Amino acid sequence: MLECTGTWDYLEDMSKVASQHFGEIELNHGREHCYVASHELAGNQLELDLNVAPHDHFDEAALHKVDYRLRYLPELVDQVRDMIAEELDQEGTNPQQYLHFHSNQLKDDQLKAVFGVEDKAQLTKDVFLKALKLGHVAIYPGQPERYFVLDFTLGSHFTDELLVAAADEDGVVDDEILWES
């Protein structure tokens, strides 16, 4: 009996793999898992969620791929920021509407706190982009076309609405930036 228990403990430990970003992860065995980690990017803290569905094939190679892909998160964020900047100049896009809506909702004390400027006339595209922070990244290794979901915010103290971008497992950003609450 003790020998069997030792064998099960050994087998149980084999199903756990170390991740650079998430620590020790239990490989998926038909159960849903959500692992949360904190990560620093460009001096800002952001939350990472690793979401594994029961039907996903999540093995050691898939976990190492997540860690590998996260190395390129700064470049991915830069691509999304460039897309947002381009869309701010285009009428009717989600980033342009997001900026318009939030700048119209501003109170004077929020202008300084959120954007760091004193007057609404100073609220330029560059000021907006500087205030827009990546706050959360959800990773879905079982969804190659929506592998990364990046949530950009002006701060939870100001709004619960986000600009959301997705990228596939190769880091190719979807061409649509969404506005979600």
Question: Care to give the gist of this entry?
Answer:
This protein has helices at 2-14, 60-70, 73-88, 94-104, 108-115, 125-131; strands at residues 16-19, 23-26, 33-41, 44-52, 133-139, 148-153, 162-167, 178-180. The protein is α+β, with helices and mostly antiparallel strands. A hairpin with a 3-residue loop joins strand 1 and strand 2 (23-26).
Quickly give the structural class.
alpha+beta
Spatial gap, N to C terminus: 54 Å
Uncertain residue segments:
1-13
Q: Quick check: average pLDDT?
A: 87
Q: How would you describe the oligomerization state of the chains in this entry?
A: single chain
Largest sheet: 6 strands, mixed
| Widest sheet, order of strands | 3-4-5-6-7-8
- Our count of helices gives 6
Overall strand count: 8
Element-level helix/strand string: HEEEEHHHHHEEEE
Helix content: 25-40%
Number of domains: 1
Question: What secondary-structure arrangement, pairings included, does this model have?
Answer:
Layout: H1 2-14, E1 16-19, E2 23-26, E3 33-41, E4 44-52, H2 60-70, H3 73-88, H4 94-104, H5 108-115, H6 125-131, E5 133-139, E6 148-153, E7 162-167, E8 178-180
Parallel strand pairs: 4-5
Antiparallel strand pairs: 1-2, 3-4, 5-6, 6-7, 7-8
Please give a structural write-up.
By secondary structure, the protein is an alpha+beta fold. The chain has one domain. The chain is built from six helices and eight strands; from the N terminus they run αββββαααααββββ. A six-stranded mixed β-sheet has the order 3-4-5-6-7-8. A two-stranded antiparallel ribbon has the order 1-2. Helix 3 crosses helix 4. The chain starts with a helix and ends with a strand. Mean pLDDT is 87; it is low at 1-13.
